[in-house]
Design brief:
heterotrimer; A mainly alpha (242); B mainly alpha (53); C mainly alpha (218); B: 53 residues; mainly alpha; 81% helix; rod-shaped; C: 218 residues; 0% strand
């Protein structure tokens, strides 16, 4: 029994049908508990006041926005190398989710920046990179939609995803070079746990888990939809041929 | 019950509202597409099953 | 391959498409920006490097879809794909031809437009150098985008959406060179990075572009 068995659409459908409810419930629980905990039962930060509560949304969304692209890169590579359709469709399914997470990170960042930096938008390296990341997602989704033949679309978007990853990384460093940012280092963000008091850390951890699970849930659900859509297209094509 | 958000209430509530709104929208669209595709596929499968005997 | 290069350049010049159009567009940008921003020479001098680079980039973008579209329509792209020369090489040559008819004239015309935008004295040399080093990257990246969208009927807008994010690093380093040069600062770092991007793109992207063309021709 190897991992690649689940690349068979039928196997994938069976497994995902069994797993999906559990993941969905776990995602909902983590998100609700984490957000309620973070919103109602954590103290304000002495410097940032209540805006620290925005981080329970901002940090997980930003993390997943990047991880979603990484996941798309991996599944694209799997598709190009091993030609498993499920892999390509999973990449397609993940892209809109990643885009929405990127937008969430941008919006919450802007709302946080308004009182903290005194401006909605600052051409700060991280904000700028996220904006560029959103553009990459848009291009990727647009390319999927523009091409009719599903296999051609999967191939071309995979190539775009790989090249895009290289250029996204390049842009990240280019933007860093272009403007040294306002973004604080690890001391206030949640990159390093020892810098964050436990009262903030535990709900944040739950929220991160919630976003990860939410991503998994949505990707599973959307991949199932894509597989069905694919089968539907094939059946209809057969019908037309008579 | 509502915690005191001080002068940043707008920013905090706005963030939560925007995030939850977007996530709900995404989930709703995903579910809706899933249901639609599922129904369409079931319909076609049933029809073709009949045709082929 | 040289024959292919000459053929592409001749076609581009004769068809009138990219060649004159890109330059005219570049000129228009340089004329319109002062009209929009106002004639204060200090402001213009400050934004000139960025405007010139963005203008060059957009002018490059205009003619990208012609790199492969015409050959795709009349079937010569199929011939190229099965020709004895590797398709990767053909892609590189076509990108080079595109550069020769758009990037090169833009580079040569840029100093003239720099006068219009009141670019500081020290910036002219750096402007030409950075464009000469950076526009090949624009052509190669553009060739990749064009290869992705070659089979599509209305690929033009999609092509811009795909290619513009890829242009970000080139634009940043290119404009940075001119900005620093104009202010009399050291330009070695961005210049080296710009050259690195061009070299890397020219080395790798023809392979990706050729792969995309093969997929599209399937």
């Amino acid at each position: 029994m190897s991992f690649w068995e689940y690349a068979n659409p039928q196997k994938f459908m069976q497994l995902s049908r069994r797993v999906l409810p559990f993941v969905a419930v776990a995602a909902g629980l983590c998100l609700v508990i984490g957000l309620v905990w973070g919103f109602f039962f954590t103290p304000d930060d002495y410097k940032q006041g209540s805006t620290v509560k925005i981080f329970y949304l901002h940090v997980p969304a930003a993390m997943m926005a990047i991880n979603a692209w990484v996941m798309m890169l991996v599944t694209s590579l799997v598709w190009l190398i091993r030609r498993h359709h499920v892999s390509a469709l999973a990449a397609k399914a993940a892209a809109p989710v990643g885009l929405i997470f990127t937008v969430i990170a941008l919006i919450t960042g802007a709302l946080w920046g308004q009182p903290m930096w005194g401006t909605w938008w600052e051409w700060d390296p991280r904000l700028t990179s996220f904006l560029i990341l959103a553009l990459f997602y848009l291009g990727y989704i647009a390319l999927w939609q523009a091409i009719d033949d599903p296999d051609t679309a999967a191939d071309l978007t995979s190539v775009l995803c790989i090249v895009g990853s290289v250029f996204a990384l390049l842009s990240r460093y280019a933007v860093n070079f272009w403007n040294q940012g306002l973004h604080q280092g690890a001391s206030l963000s949640l990159d390093k746990e020892e810098n964050v008091a436990d009262v903030f850390w535990y709900p944040a951890l739950l929220c991160i888990a919630g976003f990860v699970l939410l991503f998994v849930t949505l990707v599973l659900l959307r991949t199932r939809t894509e597989i069905r859509a694919r089968r539907l297209g094939a059946l209809l094509a057969r019908e037309r041929r008579g | 019950m509502m915690p005191d958000l001080g002068k940043y209430a707008g920013a905090v509530l706005g963030s939560y509202a925007a995030t939850i709104g977007l996530i709900v929208l995404l989930v709703a669209v995903s579910l809706w597409r899933s249901a639609k595709t599922k129904a369409a596929l079931a319909e076609v499968e049933a029809r073709q099953g009949k045709d082929n005997g | 391959m040289i024959a292919l290069l000459l053929r592409d350049m001749r076609l581009a010049v004769r068809a009138g498409g990219g060649f004159g159009l890109g330059l005219a567009f570049f000129l228009l940008v340089a004329v319109l920006v002062p009209l929009g921003v106002g004639p204060e020479s200090a402001t213009l001098a400050k934004i000139a490097p960025g405007i010139l680079w963005v203008g060059a980039l957009l002018a490059c973008l205009l003619s990208l879809d012609r790199i492969f579209a015409l050959d795709f329509e009349d079937g010569s792209l199929d011939l190229l794909a099965t020709a004895p020369i590797p398709l990767e090489g053909a892609v590189a040559v076509k990108a080079l031809a595109h550069w020769a008819v758009t990037g090169l004239p833009l580079t040569l015309a840029a100093p003239v437009l720099g006068i219009l935008l009141n670019l500081p004295q020290a910036g002219y040399g750096w402007l030409v150098i950075s464009l000469a080093l950076g526009t090949p990257a624009l052509s190669v990246i553009g060739a990749f985008g064009a290869a992705l969208t070659v089979g599509l009927k209305r690929g033009g807008l999609l092509l811009s959406l795909l290619v513009l994010p890829l242009y970000v690093p080139t634009l940043i380093f290119g404009a940075e060179v001119v900005k620093r040069g104009a202010e009399g600062m050291a330009t070695a770092t961005p210049l080296a990075l710009l050259a690195g991007i061009t070299a890397g793109a020219a080395a790798m992207l023809p392979f990706a572009a050729a792969a995309a063309i093969r997929i599209n021709l399937r």
